[in-house]
Write a structure and sequence with these properties.
Elements (H helix, E strand, L loop, with lengths): L5 E4 L3 H12 L4 E4 L3 H20 L5 H9 L1 E4 L2 H5 L4 E4 L5 H14 L5 E4 L10 H4 L5 E6 L8 E6 L5 H13 L3 E4 L9 H17 L5 H11 L6 H8 L1 H14 L9 H8 L16
Parallel strand pairs: 1-2, 1-4, 2-3, 4-5, 5-6, 7-8
Antiparallel strand pairs: 6-7
Helix pairs in contact: 1-2, 2-3, 10-11, 11-12
Length: 285
Amino acid sequence: MGQERVLVVGAGAMGTQIGAVFALAGHPVTVQDISEDALERSQAVVRKRVGRLAEKGAIEAVDAEAAIGRMSWTANLEDAAATADLVVEAASERLDIKREVFARLGAAAPEHTILATNSSSIPSSLLAEASGRADRLCNMHFFNPALVMQAVEVVPNDQTSEATIETVLRLTEGIGKHAVRLHAEVPGFVANRLMMALLNEAVALQAQGLASIEDIDAAAKLGLAHPMGPFELMDLVGLDVVHDIQVAMHDMTDGDDPAPHPDVQRLYDAGHYGQKSGKGWYDHS
């Protein structure tokens, strides 16, 4: 198929960087969003981030410009889908929105086109009926920031064809990422299940008064060689994101996975999401 044409739906931080990753690997990329402001910001972010890679010597300046030249931005989903070989959806983490998007993609994209969602909490099986092509549908979960993080979780639903997974695995390796293949859907996949177990334990230790936030973070960094502590990580990722993932995992397992800890719920309800709001576990003002 050559250098497959890639459509990324959603021009936020994740969608923008996912698009840049594919463009740097030689793929023609279109980034789609309903917001013209988001599309303008996305273009500026790509120029800044890809340009920074060239400044640091990670890539040649000519390759940076070539990658940017392979990218285009549009508000028209149907036109972009009509020429795509792979679609990676990185829109809002709401099931109703995703179902609407995948229904439109399923109708507009060519028969061979593979549809993937970047969601870390909504499995593709919940989008299968809307898409009309469950066999060419899967999760392709990139990590933030996508230009830096090397892992991509590739997760089939129970109808995904082996040919689809093999193609997605090949594409993942082709863009310089390490594909973490799951053989079936599980709420939270691998990384989030590991991360949520750590975060839940950290919050419980602090709530019981057994250690301070700062000391728990220090233990993780200096004792376990983690790049940042669990509370620092929650503030970076966003307490809203952590909360929503925990709610989704709790609901999808009928309560077997824990609901958000009351302290996480308290911060969420107060709008204290971490760095993005100026306050979370730490004061970022």
